[in-house]
Amino acid sequence: MNDLNDIRWKILDAKETRWIYQKELIDIYQQSIISFKFNIPSWPKVSDEIQQAFDLSLADFQLYLHKTKINFKLLDKKITILGPEAFFISPLNADKLKQITILFEEEHIIGRLIDIDVLDISGKVIDRKVKRRCFLCDRIAINCMREQHHSQEELRDFFDHLVKNYLKEKIN
Fold it and tell me: Which domains does the chain have, with CATH numbers?
């Protein structure tokens, strides 16, 4: 098996493992699940800068949930081949949670890099009503990705630039 296929299988395996883990959390807690991660184009998906930006934005997210009076509990943080991720539970209705997480993604300085999924107690992922826009242009992001309108290098440069600027702002 060549390296690219090996990486693809590892990515699929990590996504499957995440899905199983989220279902287990639902079975145990019978509450909505919030999965907090980054949209990280290309490789590497883990670095000191990515981890630092993740930790800071995760702290911002928790503060945001407190300020909006959302009852939640952080259950787990981990690093996988997909990058850093965190998992929460909340007794709040999943549709309402999704609306709140979308506002955070839209208002946060690096919100475009943040990917917050919400699952209801049946395990259904709550979709956005309005699809996200591409990092670099105004097209629908998923269409832009499928049609490969931008190179991985362009996307990664944009990602790295936002992370560096965010870290400068937060640290200074």
Answer: 3-129 (3.30.70)
